[in-house]
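DATA SHEET
Item: assembly model
Revision: 1
Owner: S.N.
Input lines:
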Amino acid sequence: MTMTDNRQNTVIGTRQLRREDPALLTGEAKFTNDLNLPGALHLSILRSPHAHAKIVSINTAAAKSSPGVVAVYTGAELQSQWAGPMPCAWPVTADMKNPPHFPLAANKVCYVGDGVVAVLATSESASRDALDLIEVQYTVLKAVVDVEEALSDANIIHEDLGTNKSYTWNLKIEATEGCVEEAFQNAAFKVSERYVQQRLLPMAMEPRAVAAVPQPFGGDITLYSSTQIPHILKVMAALTLGIPEQQVRVIAPSVGGGFGSKLDVYAEELLCMALARKHGLPVRWVEERSENSMATIHGRGQVQYVELAADKGGKLTAVRVRIKADMGAYLQLVTPGVPILGAFLYAGVYDIPHAYDFSCDGIFTTLTPTDAYRGAGRPEATYAIESAMDALAREMNIDPLELRKRNFIQKEQFPYLAFSGLTYDSGDHLQAAEKAAGLADYVGIRAQQAKQNVPGAKKRLGIGMSSYFEMCGLAPSRVLASLNYGAGGWEAATVRVLPTCKVQVVTGTSPHGQGHETSWAMIASEKLGIPQEDIDVLHSDTAISPLGLDTYGSRSLPVGGVAIAGACDKVIDKARLIAAHQLECSADDLEFAGGVFSVKGSPDRAVPMAAIAFAAFTAHNLPDGLEPNLEAQYTYDPPNFSWPFGTHMCVLEVDTETGQIEILKYVAVDDCGVQINPLIVEGQVHGGVIQGLAQALFEEAVYDTDGNLKTTTLAEYLVPAASDVPSITTAHTVTPSPTNQLGVKGIGEAGTIGAASTVINAVVDALSGVGVTYMPMPASPQNVWRAIQSAAKAM
Amino acid sequence: MVDITVSITVNGTSQEKDVEPRTLLVHFLRDQLQLTGTNIGCDTSSCGACTVHLNGEAVKSCTVLAVQADGGTVTTIEGLSKDGVMHPMQQAFMENHGLQCGYCTPGMVMASIGLLNENPNPTEEEVRLGLEGNLCRCTGYHNIVKSVLAAAKK
Ligand code: FES
Ligand code: FES
């Protein structure tokens, strides 16, 4: 039963301004690099200028005598510091190949930016200046840049593995053996497409920063890091450094965006900790932007082969997918699992038979490691199926919206047991699509197109759409086990009512822009009937919130928020016993509303939460055997993923002479179930859409054939500015999730998942009349112009 | 290199400090005055996270040497609120959810005030163009633009 079923929410669903904002708006908030740590040493890292090379010799003598330098270490010199290699928590197959990866390279470097030498100095400028004095001799080896060429094993990166392939992961589901192949043989229509998910740089505006503060005589160490995952980091750092876990405390101060790029255990965190312990002093490091572009994980990086089979009415009969996924040089925390998170979504929002054949190769290259980036596997999958649906519509010569309508899972089919064995919790795809079509004036645009897109037209009009499903709220622990993931997917919460009836909510989620403090206080206020301003939310410090699995994968609300509701329930249950004791009635005779317990039918026999909180504190008169204090801890393991969905539409014009694209309208209809705070939901959609649109139109990590990254700064890597992007029309449908008591689903990644294919489908739609059927991302003016030219030649 | 003494009025207080000639204004503010509200997001003067007001104009403080600001007046994000009340632009950002992680925010607010000083009644397009030098990765700009337009109406 959802909260909306049994009574009217008064707090949940209202547009509350964020309590986080004043500190952030006035400069009061402290990011990691803002911390004042007197006496701290500064770490700088000399990085490899080569994509692939053997280290022949390193001379650090001059650097060691540079002013302010305290110590200089090579990878070989630090090797004894590590109890084990850097962690990969997701061995997707039993035979997955995972080369040992240490914070500094000892014998060879495998990407431009790989750490080689660490310098500690008394100031940041002294440590950076000393980098220039280090001489490293390399024997340069051939770079491996192209993920498909890497598979030939002509140049093996990690010799001990004997191959550049890390793993092959399959998901083949057939009602009867061979039915996928049969479906393709019998198909009235089929399409076979190749798409490239270019590498992206996450580019959180706050570069990463780390500070490790040791307690030399106690052995404890505190790590401050600009991270999304203080809890996971604590366990992993303890294991990698061989420090007892209870001696490690991790704090994520204000964190300036993550988008997955701070969901990792990084070399610099481990180096700061190891060197802080070695020197008995705080050690800090801050990333320069150009370092960030090489030493922080990249996103996407997949080549996708997608085939759809359909009957003569356009109903899908089979889906076949082959993925070549670029792991980069090493496996970071969840690198191999990213494409697997998309593996279940290549049938999109469509009702398909048990005829699905997915296979993914994870492949090493000599490039920066990839890992989770906003949506992680799911934007890629959605892009592929939604682009292929448009290709199928062109093949059949029918309207792409009509084709989707023929294939949508119908609302009556939910909860829907999918081919994959996963259950989609709730949905109404037709409603979302029709709402988007109305807002985008789909019919009107089609009519205008017929007039405007005449032969020779300079500006061609296009409309594109994407209907998406997001598998989020990571995740049911048992499902993660079946995917070989190295941890669970629960979330923990503690709700503590203080003697004066003020409340502390302790969460294991770790916000970095999502407004959890505001939303979690709203949930607790709704549940407990205590005003929001009396509720404080504590997070992101493993000493204050010892249990948690942090923030990623649109999990915070559908897992962490639901955990808070569950902890509130336990508090209310205990309070009810105290209330019954005070009112001398049976607990079953009490009802609870607005923060007051009252006897059913006699509302004047009542006791407010404040009286109960104080009674629980004094413990003078509690029921026999009841523990004092009013506090409850609750850990929620979700029974299912949550499945947000929606339809996005984009209307744009393409200038066929310049290749310029002008977006006329972007409509996002999203359904994340019950919304806690619509203001925050909209903000998440806006940001997500622009990140997806940026992949479609602007962004690409460009490498040359030697493996040099050509886009290392914000001048070269085109993160869009306000002037590059449109306003967004947001709208919602509300289909509560039946699997959790709040009826909520996640919304952090939805915008990104829907956007890239929406925009590219619109570009192709605009240009299909001039023969363009494929548009590589980013659809830069140059790429658009080229596509038009080559289509003209082919016609 | 010998240090140079600079005298800069920051948020109304006169500050006399010795700086290395190569010290950027942003480092002077952050490291010598502990005014860490001004953020650093890049090394190519592309992001605008470091925007402050120098002699009344919005500048990227990573493009100005501290010695160039000698004798000048600087306002940082810490100097905007008066008597515990936020500046109308700060309030407009709060009321319109114009920030998420808040890292671009100090620079964005300073740039937005600069924009309205020059053009008190901008159109949406003028706001978008005016904020071209300030990058935000979280908000998609929608609510930032809305915030600035709302502040213009205050
Ligand atoms: S720090 Fe990026 S413009 Fe100044
Ligand atoms: S609010 Fe995060 S970068 Fe703008």
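QC remark: Chain B touches chain A through 54 residues (CB under 8 Å).
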